[in-house]
Amino acid sequence: MTARAGNKASTARAPVKAKAIKTQKISGKAAEAHETANGPSAGFPIVGIGASAGGLAAFEAFFSGMPADTDPGMAFVLVQHLAPDHESILTDLIRRYTRMEVSQVEDGMVVHPNCVYIIPPDRDMAFLNGTLQLLEPSAPRGQRLPINFFFHSLAQDQHERAIYIVLSGTGSDGTLGVRAIKSEGGMVMAQTPDSAEYDGMP
């Protein structure tokens, strides 16, 4: 893994083992920073993962190499571009790769460590006060940016505890999410283009 730190951290190199996935750290601060009076609403790291085309193979590689009892306990929130008019089977597919509890998000769902949460079709999603909030998309179909939407809210709520992993995909959705996480001192990691099925997003 190639680490390229921002203004708040030094440059370092370290290996990452997550099966076929290779990532590079773009920026960040320690994810386990102490909470402040205006700190994050969750007492554990929230790891958001954004993907679109080629995301399923990347999810498989990621969770196949991820222990079910992370230390410290982390929650994983998956935001993928989904067809708005079809029921998603992503939840069932992810269950094949991990022993963690996997759930499709319902509005107001409380987040717990060592669990995986998946955005449902035709919804925007935000993280607020330790819960996942679902909203009807305001942008028309074809112009929606659910990854940016979620990670902006995650950055505002979790600050330096926010962790954002960008996996395989096309298009620019997620770019503004990277900026939001970086501005709050959180950590951003991207799948290396040579290991991504589609390298437009990472």
From TrEMBL:
TM ranges: none
Any GO BP: chemotaxis
Enzyme Commission number, as recorded: 3.1.1.61
Residues at the active site: 52, 81, 173
Keywords recorded for this protein, A-Z: Chemotaxis, Hydrolase
Annotated Gene3D superfamilies: Methylesterase CheB, C-terminal domain
GO molecular function: phosphorelay response regulator activity; protein-glutamate methylesterase activity
One cellular component (GO) term of this entry: cytoplasm
Signal peptide as annotated in the record: none
Superkingdom of origin organism: Bacteria
Enzymatic reactions: [protein]-L-glutamate 5-O-methyl ester + H2O = L-glutamyl-[protein] + methanol + H(+)
Alphabetized InterPro entries for the sequence: CheB_C, Sig_transdc_resp-reg_Me-estase
Top-level EC class: hydrolase
Domain CheB-type methylesterase: 40-202
Name of the protein in question: protein-glutamate methylesterase
Organism: Candidatus Cryosericum odellii
